[in-house]
Amino acid sequence: MNTWRLLYTPPSTGAWNMAVDESILEHIHRGEALPTLRLYSWNPPCLSLGHAQSFADVDMEQVKAHGWEVVRRLTGGRAILHTDELTYSVTGSASEPILSGSILESYNRLAQALMFAVRELGLPVELKEHSPAGEPATLNLNPVCFEVPSTYEITVEGKKLIGSAQARKKEGVLQHGSLPLTGDLTRICQALVFKDEAARENAAQRLLARATTVESIIGVETDWETAAQAFVHGFEAQLGIHFQRGELSQSESERAEELVKEKYANPAWTERS
Fold it and tell me: Could you tell me if 87 and 7 are in contact, meaning their C-beta atoms sit under 8 angstroms apart?
């Protein structure tokens, strides 16, 4: 049986959350940490941008007015507003069997565990293949992650439920993603720039048509701890992983603090075009 580390980390800032994921990746590369499933959340709410996404997409006046933060991820994709959700990250070497092969191959292995987890929560999810060629070109310019279809999506009642992104670096593989538990998904539209209010409202309506939350489907709110337990069960059952509960090492924490200062809280990283 494959042994991984399981981390539950407390609600933290966006810069700290992203720095911890990268610090874990570096330590795994040096052989100083096991492959890791980390489950976490955000405080305060934070808008995360994809690695190559333009900072010009962000309406900083609105972000500040709501008391939110902005961070840029190591992974690609579009913007996500992290609030009322369970966030997961999977980190390991590229030779780890579950993470080996192409991005799509490893993504689909992990998707089996994610589907098991949300089915345990009572959601009738499906993994649907999507053909990007069938989408209008304007959608590819959309700044909102949950409105942009991915190659394979975890959906329920035809709506996207989990948004995930993966980065494959020389240090290894990092995939993280979000399961919205409750709340108004359209709040993200307040944090992004649109040409006018009509465009903002149209984006909000498209988002509601394309994405959903756990509570919207099952009619009751699921707490973070219940969702986290389901994720652990999913990875154990579908991927044959044996988890050891752990904590960040002192070295991982110290490196994360460095990465916050050098990178994730540094405007040179976050605010680039």
Answer: no
Q: Is the pLDDT of residue 124 over 50?
A: yes
pLDDT exceeds 50 at position 1: yes
**Phi, psi dihedrals of residue 167, rounded to the nearest 5°:** -125, 135
- Indicate which residue of 145, 185, 217, 241 is catalytic: 145
Q: How many domains does the chain have?
A: 1
**Closest listed residue to residue 81, CA positions, set 38, 57, 50, 45:** 45
Residue 248: closest CA among 68, 91, 60 = 91
| Active-site residue, 189 included | no
Domain harbouring 203, CATH code: 3.30.930.10
- The tens digit of pLDDT for each residue in 196-230 reads 999 999 999 999 999 999 999 999 999 999 999 99
For residue 109 the two structure tokens come to 């292995």
